[in-house]
Structure formats: C-alpha cells, structure tokens
Amino acid sequence: MSTRPANGLAFVPAPLAQLPWKILLLVLAIGCFDLLVLYSAAGGNIRPWALSQGVRFFILLAGAIVLSRVREDMWGKIALPAYGVLCVMLVLVELVGAVRGGGQRWLDVGFIRLQPSELMKPCIVLACAKFYDMLPPNETRRFGAIWPAALLIMLPAALVMKQPDLGTALMITIGGVTVMFLAGVPLRLFIAGALALGAAIPLAINFVLHDYQKNRILVFLDPESDPLGTGYHISQSKIAIGSGGIFGKGFLNGTQSHLDYLPEGHTDFALATMMEEWGLVGGVLLILAFFVIVQWGLAAALQAQSRFAKLTAAGLAATIFYYVSINMAMVMGMAPVVGVPLPLISNGGSSQMTFMLCLGILMSIDRGNRKTPGW
Hints:
The chain is mainly α. The protein has helices spanning 14-17, 21-41, 50-67, 72-96, 116-134, 147-161, 166-183, 187-207, 211-221, 232-244, 270-303, 307-331, 349-369, and strands spanning 98-100, 103-108, 113-114.
C-alpha cells in the first residue's frame, strides 16, 4: 500500500511529502531571522557570526530531516548505550578536555570541537524514557522506580557541574525530572525532593558553586548591588530591551549592541539585541513561534502509541520549552544568569545542535504516529 499522501503532489518524493512542513518552515523562518539579528549585531556584516551560523543552521537542519527517517523504536534501542557513551565522554572532558572561556567543556577531535554536555540534554530524556518504558506501569509509584532514574540524572549533572557549567547541568536535571513526572512518579515525592533541595541550597552555595556563580545569584536578588561588575550584563540587557519599546529602533539601528554596551549580545543575550531593534512585537512573535513548535511536540506525544514515544516526545518538547523560557527569563532579569542560550537565535553550534536533535527525534515520532516506513 502506498504511503504517498493524496494531496495532488505526486511529483514530490514520499519521504519529503511526509515531513511536517509547517513546522520546518517555521524553524526556517526563525533561523533566517537569526541571521538578520547576527548581521546587525556585527554592525551590518556577515562576519564573524552570521555566515558561520547560517552554514551550521542549514547543515544541522538537513541532519534533523535525516533523523526524521529513523524509526522511533530505534531511539529506544540506542538510548541507554548512547547515554553510557556520553558519560564516558564527560569523564574524558574532565581528563583531557579543551579549556575555553574559563570552562573545560569540550573534546577536541581534530575536525570538530564537541561539547558532550549538550548532547546529554536530549539523551537524558531518551534514557529516562527508556527506563520507564522497561518498567511495568504498576511499579512506577514504588521507590525502585525512582532511585535508578535519579542516578541516571545525577551522574551527568554532577560531571557537568564539575566543568563548571551550571546552566547545562540545570537543563539536564530538569529534562530528566520532567520525564519522571510524566511517567507517573507520585507528586508527594517531588514535593519531598523540592524541600530537600531547598534545605541543601545553603550547602550548595557554600561548597558547590563557584564564586562567580554565587555572585550571579546575589545580583539576581539585588540587581543594583554590583552594577558595573557581575550585574553589568543584566543591567545593559534591560536597558536594551526597554529602549526598543513596542516596535523597536529599527533594523541596524540598535545602540546598546553596536556601541558594545551589551556584552555577549550575539550569544546568551542575543534576545536583547533583537528586541532593541524589533521591539516588543518582535519578541512576542518569536515567543509565539516557539510556542507553536512546543505545542506540535506535545501533540506528537499525545498521538504516540508506545509509552517510550510518549515520554520521549513530551520530554523533548519540554526541553525546548525550558531552553527558551530560561534564556528569556535570564535576559529580562527574571532569573539568574546561568549561561543558557536561546535556540536558533544565540550564536553557537551547541544550542543549534541540541535543538535540531530534538526536532529530528520529534519528527521521527510524528512520522511513526502516521505509520509511515523508515530505516
């Protein structure tokens, strides 16, 4: 029986016709808009950011389309082995990793500098989803359903904190805990865990966090305590966003980024650069675009037939949501600065790669919901 859709596009190959083109076109629109933001951030030049970002974007988008052809059951088969390989790579980062920007987070493999912690963000969702898929549903509410998943999460999160990278460790933890919650772990256990975490915060501040991480939390609680030091980023970010008003200053007319008042205006604080020129309207449209993508991912989870696919799709959609919401809260001064970039907008291949991995797996599950063949 043919799987070609009966939409009159007989000349379009079936694998292409089966793709969720509305979502792909939306992702393409966000990626191309990002190139305008980076072009402007560089003062009207495609170098050093827009050109390299554009090349990475289209290569990774093609990779996501290739991943969409993988059968959803294959993700279950590779979930735990991939998790083990990434844990080994995180240990290697600690032993022989490349140091850049004060952090030891990369493995230099010659032709590429790889950040295993970024790959762990979608992988922890796959690993936890596979664990709960193997577990009988009636066992989910017992202690034996909690501590193995907690270890799966805590091991990579601890290794990433050692690098140090608080933002990525936070993303890994939240992604895994979200799958635990969706799998049916009792709410009372999350409440108990939250209380225990709250009690441990003073110990973490004194013995785990680095000085610059402590300062970021203190500045978040009192933004005016260090306006020219740790608080400089967030102060300038608020100025850039506020000065953009409703409709923005106009393309290439931003001042905070062009005059170098806004640090990291092309990476973690790219949203502030964008909103200075495109205003509240640009920011709201961007939020709506990501909302549509997350909603599509959750719809794929609801339509999935297997427990693994449901948990994976919902967990990956949540990962995209956390990526976007944490960065936006950080840039607007509603959360401490933890170094979480905005997918497709912030310059850098790591966040792009993570987003495209999530997108590719979600498209694979979405295709599986329609029972179309794959590899």
